[in-house]
Amino acid sequence: MTYKKLKKNAEINSMIKKGNENLGELGFTDHSEIHCSMVAEQAARILKKLGYSKKQVELAKIAAYMHDIGNVVNRINHAEYGAILANEILKKTDMSTEDRMTVVSAIGHHDESTGGATDVVSAALILADKTDVRRDRVREKPRDEFDIHDTVNYAVTQSKLKINLEKKVIALNLQLDTNICTMYEYLDIFLGRMMMCRGAAELLGVTFKLTANGAKVL
Questions:
Q1: How far apart are CA 33 and CA 116, in angstroms?
Q2: Handedness of CA 134, 139, 143, 144 (dihedral sign)
Q3: Of 56, 130, 165, 205, which has the highest C-beta tally within 10 A?
Q4: What SS3 class is residue 164?
Q5: Is there a contact between 64 and 84 (Cβ–Cβ < 8 Å)?
């Protein structure tokens, strides 16, 4: 099983589509194939940049693309549901049991309410997923219907994840429109996720930093 083949899997794509539709009805931000693909590419970039193997990069991409399929069952415990669903799907492929368990574990540990990085694949997934903060993840709706998650994402006019090998730092650099959302509001929503990123970065042997409008926050 390769990432290229996985992206063409109709069952997986149906789960992502329906899960995203469920979240849309519940008022959550975009969790579509676009998000899953972006997280997969970002996870791969992190591991490639840090010198990890092609196999680890490929497993990170696979885990990242599938990480939100559990939303087809329910948003609550979606990481755990997603891990179980992924295991059943990947059983039908030529993926080795060891590699399948790596993917399943990464998916099962990616949510900040119950998870945390346990290996390099899960660490890359967490960093890529939790730093995907951007205005176009907000669904089309009137501004007066925005909840705090919509407001925070909409306030982010630019988001870049930079990897500095010399300083051993992974930094999320945000441009935040403070007329829409203050830094305090951002941290109120995302502090748990950013702390999760810090743990994931440490597992990879680097430090996680967050800057907003050029000022260091974490």
A1: 23
A2: negative
A3: 130
A4: strand
A5: no
